[in-house]
UniProtKB/TrEMBL annotation:
InterPro entries: Glyas_Bleomycin-R_OHBP_Dase, Glyas_Fos-R_dOase_dom, VOC_core. This is VOC family protein. It comes from the Bacteria. Residues 1-126 form the VOC domain. It holds the Pfam family Glyoxalase.
Length: 131
């Protein structure tokens, strides 16, 4: 369905320091990084698309959209917990701690946060608890 998702930033270095550990913890491989441009991309498995792209907006301005959110898939509830902790440790702001959200469905376990630029993200697991 998606070719790519682009997340804009005002400070590429700060944003890269936030997204690299977050996406690595979710097992999402970095495909490229061109700081001089500035932009970076992470690739889905088995690839090559969709891509998650991070960079300076083409128009040179950045304003996070109201109601826009990127949701990243986690393989387990523990991975959701770890991703949320990683986000907060790298300058993110909590928008909803890890936990069940049964109003979506009985096994929806998610966490919500904003990156240092104010972009809203979610990490969600749709699987029942391991055990």
């Amino acid at each position: 369905m998606f070719s790519h998702i682009f997340i804009g930033t005002r400070d590429f270095g700060r944003a890269l320091a936030f997204y690299r550990p977050l996406l690595a913890g979710l097992g999402i491989a970095e495909r490229f990084c061109e700081p001089e441009r500035p932009w970076a991309g992470w690739q889905s498995t088995p690839g090559p698309r969709p891509l998650l792209l991070l960079g300076a907006p083409f128009e040179g301005e950045h304003a996070p959209g109201n109601g826009q959110m990127v949701a990243l898939l986690a393989a387990s509830r523990a991975q959701v917990n770890d991703a949320h902790a990683t986000a907060l440790a790298h300058g993110g702001r909590c928008e909803g701690p890890p936990g069940l959200r049964p109003h979506y469905h009985q096994d929806y376990y998610g966490a919500y946060f904003r990156d240092p630029d104010g972009n809203k993200l979610c990490v969600a697991c749709h699987e029942p608890p391991a055990g």
